[in-house]
Amino acid sequence: MADTLPAIEVDSNAGSFVSDSAFEDGTSTASASLASSVIDYVYENGRRYHAYRKGQYVLPNDPEEQDRLDLGHHLFRLLLGGKLFQAPIDPENKRVLDIGTGTGIWAIDVGDEYPNAQVIGTDLSPIQPTWIPPNVRFYVDDAESDWVYPADEAFDLIHGRGLSGAIGDWDRLIRQSFNNLKPGGWLEFHEAEAQAQSDDDTVERAVSTMEFVRLCNDAARQFGREVSCAHLIKDRMINAGFVDVTCEMMKVPIGVWSKSKRLKEIGRFQGENCISGVEPYTLGFIGKGLGWTELECKVFVAKVIAELRDPKNHFYSLFYFVHGKKPE
């Protein structure tokens, strides 16, 4: 797939990738008035995890992870030229659902930009802010359970982002989305392929990074999940009955090695996103799925991060942006 996109030109003068402390100080406020079974979090390896349907999602929900999710939101908006979605729809006066809303930042931005829309965000973790636009609501829910929205509450736009590794049955999720859309409504996914790639041979020399990718994929299968499934979404949507399905692929540098000024800025955010994600993915997938100890995970994390920070390594991620319409 990546071979169909032009190679990214390397900046031979790029320096090493260094974390920006501005990414390290953010916090999020948990939602209030929830049952203790939902907010009585699980703590392991110094990280905090959701309690509702424990183990369904293996990544943490603590403030550190919330910062990473919010950073990813900024990255996605950079990639889309500031847009929140690509589907040709105006959400004003329409119903919008955000699956796996995380910190809720996408749903909140939609609510702010379209004040007459009705926006719902669902997630296993109640980590969304309490101060939100009046047209936005958040609910603790499992997107893989049966959806119980009444027929007269069907949606005009359903959005999912960063769900790879969290969904066990993508075909079922897409079918449920289809059934809960109004005729002419749109389903949209933004996903990154969980594979480090390069246009030169640097990724093959990065032994720890290649092992990290392989082990995460192997471990995800232990949980009945796939973390490298973005390339399959388009066909799955077509098979479910969606029409006008469009898939756009983008190469996203990991780090500031690109010669392009725009890609250098994007690469800075993606580099930080990847680096901050190595530990939770290692602890969550490799530690829990393959039985590694916390110490083994920590040592491995350090090796992978060192390779990601090395400016001689020209890694990129392949992002997929897919949307399709339910026939009218």
UniProtKB/TrEMBL annotation:
Point out the coiled-coil segments of this chain. Answer: none
* Keyword terms, alphabetized: Methyltransferase, Transferase
For molecular function, the Gene Ontology terms on record are: methyltransferase activity
Superkingdom of the source species: Eukaryota
Q: Name one GO biological process term.
A: methylation
Which InterPro entries does this entry report, sorted A to Z?
A: SAM-dependent_MTases_sf
Pfam families associated with the record: Methyltransf_23
Q: Which PANTHER family does the UniProt entry name for this protein?
A: 2-METHOXY-6-POLYPRENYL-1,4-BENZOQUINOL METHYLASE, MITOCHONDRIAL (PTHR43591:SF24), METHYLTRANSFERASE (PTHR43591)
Q: What is this protein called?
A: Methyltransferase
Source organism of the structure: Eremomyces bilateralis CBS 781.70
